[in-house]
Structure formats: C-alpha cells, structure tokens
C-alpha cells in the first residue's frame, strides 16, 4: 500500500501533525473528525506538535509531551490516542481555556454536561441522544471559555461520538436504527458514527453551560433523576478538569461559578431510551439564567502557574505557622477547596483539615493545634488526633500552604504557657 507523507492540519491549530502513514489511516480521518475541518498537505515541513509514522506493521505517535512513543496496530486506536494530543495542543495554544473530560449535549439552547464516570455509558448515551435529534458537542473533552460578559461557554470538538463495542443491550430500537442508517468505521473495540446535519456541532461552535448530570448506570434500575450536592459537583469537575496551563485559582473560580449557578443532578438508569425521555422532560426549558462568572479576575489570574516556591519545606515541629498568602479558597455546602500557592494545585479539605486550616488564621504550632482539636473531641484517642493533625500540617507544608510565623519576644507576664511556646 502506497505510503502517505505530509502534514495533517486542523482548523484552529497553528501547528500540524507530521504524517508518514498508510491509506487506512487517511480514510479513517473523516469518520473521526466529521465536523473538525482538516486537510493533508504535501507542503514543506514545518514545526509539528506531534507525528504519526507507520512502520513495522504499527502506527507510532511521537510528541514532546509523551513520556514515550505510543504504538498501535490499528488506525482507529491510533486516532483515539491522537485525539488526546489534539486536546492538549488546543489548550497549549489558548491558555485561557479550561477543559473537562466528559460529554456535552445541547438541550433548549444550553449544554448539559456529563462529567466522565467510568462505565456509566457516557458515549453510548451521546450516540443515542444524536439519534434523538439532539446536538452533540462532545463525548470526550469539552473546552470551556469565559466570555467577555462573564458567560461560560462550552466549545464543540467537532469529533464524532465513539461507541464502545459490542453495542450495549440497553439501547433501544431508535438508536439501533440510527446506527444502521449512519456511515461508520469500526474495529473490535470501537465504532465512530458519522453524524449528519445538526447531530454534531461544528468545531468551535459555542453554547452556554446549563446543567451538570452525573451518570450512574445500574442493571435493572428504573430511570430517575435526583439532585446532586454542589460540593460533590465541584469535586467531580476538579477531578475531570485537565487544563493545567492556567493558574489554579482561575480554574477553581470558574468551576465554582458553574456549580453555584448550574443545577446538578444524578441520573440513575439502565435502559437508554427512558433515560433520554427523562432528560428531555427535565431540560425542556430553563427556569434560571445560565451561569455567569460575575467577578472577572485580575488579568494575571489566567496566567500560567507560578514556579514552585523556592526553599525547603517548613518543619512543622518547630515554631508557629500561618496560612500562606496567595491562597484562593472556595466554600460550598460547608466544604472547602484551596489552591496551592504555586498556582498549580487544588486541594479538598475534609472537616478535620478545614478546622485546622481555620486555626491557622492565627499563629499556631503543631502542639497547639493538637491541644485545641483534642479539646473539641475529648472522646477521640489523643494518639489518633496527634497522628491526624500532624499528617494534615505536613500535607499543608508540602503544598506550600503554610508560612512560618515570625518569632515574637514575650515578657514573663504575656508569655503563653502552652506546649508550643515552652523553651
């Protein structure tokens, strides 16, 4: 088979993918990137962000951002891996974008997001929703953009939904008929379904975020939808966010705005069509405005993360400590989230850690923290409290959340007689 050498260019990306592949790979492209315009050109080489080479009966993907080259024998598996590199390339090119792992489908002019959950049927549901004449924005990754007016939009990938094979028994007649009526390309693991018309949004089409739906598939379950807590929703979005190019404070603020203003639900189901009927009923209209990022951050907030603070990790066994400056905090449903001082990390605080964090509003030593927590929970063994408080402060210290308090000279009259201050 005659090899194809050239550059694979995608709309919206400055850098291409360098190709040296066979015709099977080229023929698979329009099935996978149905609504993401792309071309293969024979122009002079230029800097590419990745390469795909077919040799020794396998496709090899190389990229500076891969620890080692990826190797696949099948063109579809190769393209599945390439989609990940394309997602990262898009984020590196526009560092103001966040990105979530999950699906997104338009209902009544807004996007219902389906954050990724293992084996919950996200991609199957996306294909079935296309069969129900809904517009799919993605079944894999969704870039998010904060608009000039503060609105939060999801952007279409233009990539066809990918169905895992075999086709689940839970899909009904409508979806089965749709699969027969649409062109597709398959291997033993996956099928990419080539949509028509408005079944798949065009690349970079934007729609406001409307709601979050967490999928939970249970054998034999009657389809029902129930509220999900804002704290659980925020945890899930933080977990599924993979835009680490911008400061963590910006990420946390945008995700918090979504979970504060967009309703969050849990959809429990088995059969796909009853689940779709329930979604259509729930989102037939919207009774509140779409989420808005109301307090636009300083321009520097969307800059790349800072370098990690210089210097050794503070020794928590020596001296008193305070909350480090530059930490952004979000509280929702009485649960707290913090950004690391280096702008790269987001931390969830359980009840115990949140209590210790509050203590650090004033200079506090390890011994003082143990003493105060033990006083609040006299029924708990002191040894267990000591271990838990020590581990929490060590975690704060490792992540740059602590600042050592300056030593203060005390007179005999005002010197506090506590374990942390005894010389």
- Main sheet makeup: 6 strands, mixed
Percent in helix: 25-40%
CATH class of the largest domain, named Alpha Beta
CATH architecture classification name of the largest domain: 3-Layer(aba) Sandwich
Helix count from the secondary structure assignment: 10
Which short descriptors sum up this protein?
423 residues; Rossmann fold; Outer Surface Protein A, domain 3; 3 domains; five-stranded mixed beta barrel; 23 strands; globular
Summarize the helices and strands and which ones pair or pack.
Elements: E1 4-10, E2 17-21, H1 23-32, E3 38-41, E4 50-55, E5 58-62, E6 70-72, H2 75-93, E7 98-107, E8 110-115, H3 122-131, E9 135-138, E10 141-146, E11 152-155, E12 162-164, H4 173-181, E13 184-186, E14 190-193, E15 206-217, E16 224-227, H5 230-240, H6 248-261, E17 264-269, H7 272-282, E18 320-323, E19 329-332, E20 335-339, E21 346-349, H8 351-359, E22 364-365, H9 366-376, H10 382-398, E23 402-404
Parallel strand pairs: 2-4, 8-15, 15-17
Antiparallel strand pairs: 1-2, 1-3, 4-5, 5-6, 7-8, 7-9, 7-10, 10-11, 11-15, 12-14, 13-14, 16-17, 18-22, 18-23, 19-20, 20-21
Helix pairs in contact: 3-4, 5-6, 9-10
